[in-house]
Amino acid sequence: MRKPSDEISLDPRDWDAFSRAAHTALDDAIEFLRTVDQRPVWQPPPESLRTSTNDAVPTLETSFEEVYAEFKNTILPYATGNTHPRFFGWVHGAGLAGGIVAEMLAATMNSNCGGRDHGAIYIEKEVVNWCKELFGFPVESSGLLVSGTSMANLIGLGVARNSRAEANIRMHGLKNHARTLVSYTSAEAHESVVRAIEILGLGAASLRKIPVRADFAIDVEVLRNAITEDRRAGMEPFCVVGSAGTVNTGAIDPLDQLSSLCVAENLWFHVDGAFGALACLSDSLRSRLTGIERADSLAFDFHKWAQIQYDAGCILVRRGDLHRAAYSMRPSYLHNLGRGLASGENWPCEFGPELSRSFRALKIWFAFKEHGIRKIGHIIEQNCEQAQYLKHRIAREPNLELLAPVSLNIVCFGFRQPGLEAVESDKLNEDIVADLQELGVAAPSTTRVEGRVAIRVNITNHRTRTADLNVLIDAVLSAGRARTAAGISPER
Amino acid sequence: MRKPSDEISLDPRDWDAFSRAAHTALDDAIEFLRTVDQRPVWQPPPESLRTSTNDAVPTLETSFEEVYAEFKNTILPYATGNTHPRFFGWVHGAGLAGGIVAEMLAATMNSNCGGRDHGAIYIEKEVVNWCKELFGFPVESSGLLVSGTSMANLIGLGVARNSRAEANIRMHGLKNHARTLVSYTSAEAHESVVRAIEILGLGAASLRKIPVRADFAIDVEVLRNAITEDRRAGMEPFCVVGSAGTVNTGAIDPLDQLSSLCVAENLWFHVDGAFGALACLSDSLRSRLTGIERADSLAFDFHKWAQIQYDAGCILVRRGDLHRAAYSMRPSYLHNLGRGLASGENWPCEFGPELSRSFRALKIWFAFKEHGIRKIGHIIEQNCEQAQYLKHRIAREPNLELLAPVSLNIVCFGFRQPGLEAVESDKLNEDIVADLQELGVAAPSTTRVEGRVAIRVNITNHRTRTADLNVLIDAVLSAGRARTAAGISPER
Asked: Is the predicted pLDDT of residue A407 greater than 70, yes or no?
């Protein structure tokens, strides 16, 4: 047995040297954010980074300074790119300067937010209460911060499933449930809904993908008929998932109608509001979400339109008692002593699958305190106005064509070249997007709208200016013309 | 529509002022860690913090400096306490100084690690490959970083469920599955296993809790008989969950025997190695885990014995193809263009429920590079030696009694007072633990061992010295004697 004098720790041997290195890293980090628009949006990771995945696990010590230097040279330049004003891919927020400090401070406290009685628990509760306030949820509702809407959908649909009154699904599972549980969402809903249904053991086939109308929102009459038919066929409808901002086009389902239908049919009403829900922070957009306050559960993200650093999402459940009943479990080693560190009621681990949980609430608390929801709401409006600007700019360009209505902040369009077959046109537009990314000039993404490849521009970016959209359009036109002048590119 | 000149962002108006505030925060953070042993382990959050949960959502802006000052005064002093050398509660790691920089840098890059082709993806792949190397997993295995073992258990058992050869459970669900799927674990297994089984729709009743032997490890013969009986009764056994370090006592199931049994019975072998798995970093402890390299899936945490900041866990799956088949989903908006940002194979979102994922790998990469696995392994050995020291110290104290064998780093004991009824003794020991926490002198937790309340000391703490254990024992004796001298405390 080693002598106490031989005991070691992993703390710095020289705190001053560590402090100097840490301050250098902080300077670099701030400079990275301050000058982000002077760099390419994205650049491909070099071969050396790709092959470093095969490096052996490090056995011996290295100085912190050396490790930091390796990070700075080989990792930092190859970020996803969403901090850049011309990142328009998928639905990524751009992050906040204050967020880097908040994450550092959360790491300093190193709290485990699974439960117990300590500061972080109250900050998470405060943030969840803010969300209840924002969405008009009642005081008896509950909430939990999670990595994002994929997890939030899983948790919300889990409550829906476990809350079927006539059964104890937690105990007895689905095999012994009398009838097949079926659920409904639109054909434009996010795939995380399908994945949640699969994980919960319900089977993807039990989720009915209801067609959408011309505005890409769910057709409520078709939905109503589907429920009736399923009941007639002996199925057990249990849940409708509405979308507040679909991933392809930003469409918002008629939430008020869906809620009324769910009340009439005694179904759980879950809303996937991944990015669109936070449009409630805007006075001019809020009315588009009418009905969201009637949801039984609501899933949304902070790392999208609230610009919080990755990752940060939330699930709210109207009836906190059902939420807790779906997941709560307090084994003997988590016994509440009534005082001391192991006290407090309604531990976060009773409301979802995770027992180990970082202090995710802090970065949200910091951002909402520093910026206030009014300013965040202004950014959301600004992005929607920028999308309208882009729509009009596209309408003026003979080589461009709008491919879907612009509901919020997502613009789907294509480069049009007369005489091209559909498959050639699809490939051309994919190539244009990849060209722009590789040039580092802008990063839109692609999707398919009614079967056709679209250049998809999503603006959930507080750094984007109208000038950036002009750079984007000019680059699309230039890439498109270069490719069509040269004939359709053969490489792939 | 607003004019481009009116466009705003959430970036600092004055980067220099922000930089000054951020550097102050960093100084405070480093000082917090450097002087952690000079403060109480834990102190109760004051009433003002508890009631701040009802504060209205902030509408207007506040300066970053003001928000930081509020954090420093009202939140920072009330951490969980696990950074302190005398935190012995539950199984929390103590965190690393370098981790606060790594988290700051991850927040700077703000990468979304759901997929695509950028630096963070390769660092996660590198970290996962290190884990495959550490546990002897084959090259075709797969892995994913997650919040912790609760999530990792859910994902691993999800693969086990979805891999049943004769069915397509992802598509058709459990209701239509021919027979009831049943699984097995020990009575000492972690409750996250139960919760995973519940979420997956299998029902807690389908998980057989097999009794343990005197060493708190699963009784393999009882398990074998249970499988046979279930088959006879028309059930479909599909999975055995072994524990590498149980939460109550640190017991390790006979993994090699369990693996052989699973091969013979054609069952999936999942290992919950939350904290114990990383004992593989120690040359002297590694042999205790023999068989772990044969697991079909392995769940473990970095934020426990590897001291990584919360949260950080991992799931490894021996057959990467089955892992991917259980979760992969690539809708049109995530189409791989073959080049540019949307390229790369085996996106992380294809291996679990999350599409939004922070750059969790960076803090692990930093820690393994800086400290090397040999030194982390020394800390693990040191903690186990400290547990042995504690055991011997307890044996020498007439008022103390060991309540379970010390397998690794967990010591369960009680303050013994002749003449007390069991219920009085239980209450006395709970009171002692709460006394110590409220005094701030040390933070053990409680659990029940064979029905009796135990003072549970878990040492997964690189800052703990033998001297801290003496402080703990002295404080337990002092609190116990004070309470028994005064008569059993009436308050609760």
From this structure: yes
The DSSP symbol for A56 reads: P
CA angle A347–A351–A355, rounded 5-degree value: 65
B466–A191 CB contact, under 8 Å: no
Q: Are A353 and B430 an interchain contact pair (Cβ–Cβ within 8 Å)?
A: no
- Identity (one letter) of the amino acid at B252? I
- Predicted TM-score (pTM) of this structure: 0.97
CA A96 → CA A31, A127, A371, B9, distances in Å? 13, 18, 10, 10
Rounded distance between C-alpha atoms, residue B203 and residue A171, angstroms = 5
Instruction: Please compute the mean of the pLDDT values over residues A263-292 and round it to a whole number.
Output: 97
State both tokens at B245: 């370090």
Domains identified in chain A and CATH numbers: 15-42+79-96+372-492 (3.90.1150.170), 111-358 (3.40.640.10)
In this prediction the ipTM stands at: 0.97
Sheet holding A445-449, edge to edge: A400-402, A410-415, A452-458, A445-449
Full DSSP string of B115-180: SSSSHHHHHHHHHHHHHHHHHT--TT-EEEEES-HHHHHHHHHHHHHHT-TT--HHHHTTTTSSS-
Which residues lie closer than 8 Å to B73 by C-beta, 6 or more apart?
none
**Quick check: B339 and A434 in contact, CB under 8 A?**
yes
Residue ranges of B 330-359 with Cβ closer than 8 A to chain A: 331-335, 337-342, 353-359
pLDDT of res. B94: 98
**pLDDT tens column, A231-266:** 999 999 999 999 999 999 999 999 999 999 999 999
Q: Which residues of B touch A370 (CB under 8 A)?
A: 61-64, 67
Residue B253: left (phi > 0), alpha (psi -120 to 50), or beta? beta
Closest by Cα among B339, B277, B1, B340 to B143: B277
Question: In which band, very low, low, confident or very high, does the pLDDT at A2 lie, cut at 50, 70 and 90?
Answer: low
CB pairs under 8 A between A and B: 597
The confidence band for A491, taking pLDDT boundaries of 50, 70 and 90, is very low
| Sequence-ordered strand ranges (E) for A327-478 | 400-402, 410-415, 445-449, 452-458
- Cβ neighbours of B206 in A, within 8 Å: 173
Say whether pLDDT at B433 is over 90.
Answer: yes
- What residue has token string 């249990």? A238
Whether A310 and B111 have beta carbons less than 8 Å apart is answered as yes
Cβ within 8 Å of A, B 250-279: none
In A50-139, DSSP assigns E strands to none
For residue A411, is pLDDT > 90? yes
- The percentage of chain B sitting over the pLDDT mark of 90, rounded to a whole number, equals 93
Using one digit for the tens of pLDDT, what is the confidence trace for A72-100? 999 999 999 999 999 999 999 999 999 99
User: For A89, how many CA atoms within 13 A lie in the half-sphere containing its CB?
Assistant: 29
DSSP alpha helices (H): ranges in A248-305? Answer: 255-265
Q: Is A18 left (phi over 0), alpha (psi -120 to 50) or beta?
A: alpha
- B491 pLDDT more than 50: no
Alpha-carbon distances, residue B40 vs B79, B87, B94, B441, B443 (angstroms):
11, 10, 15, 6, 10
CB under 8 Å to A433, separation ≥6 — which residues?
A444, A445, A446, A455, B337, B340, B342
- What whole-number distance in Å separates Cα of residue B242 and Cα of residue A86? 49
Shortest Cα distance, chain B CAs vs residue A261, angstroms: 26
User: In chain B, what residues touch A117 (CB-CB under 8 Å)?
Assistant: 44-45
Q: Per the CB < 8 Å rule, is A174 touching B171?
A: no
Task: Give the closest residue to A156 by CA, choosing from A304, A293, A272.
Answer: A272
Q: Is the pLDDT of residue A490 over 50?
A: no
Q: Which two tokens stand for residue B421?
A: 């009824």
Alpha carbons B323 and B353: distance in angstroms, whole number: 12
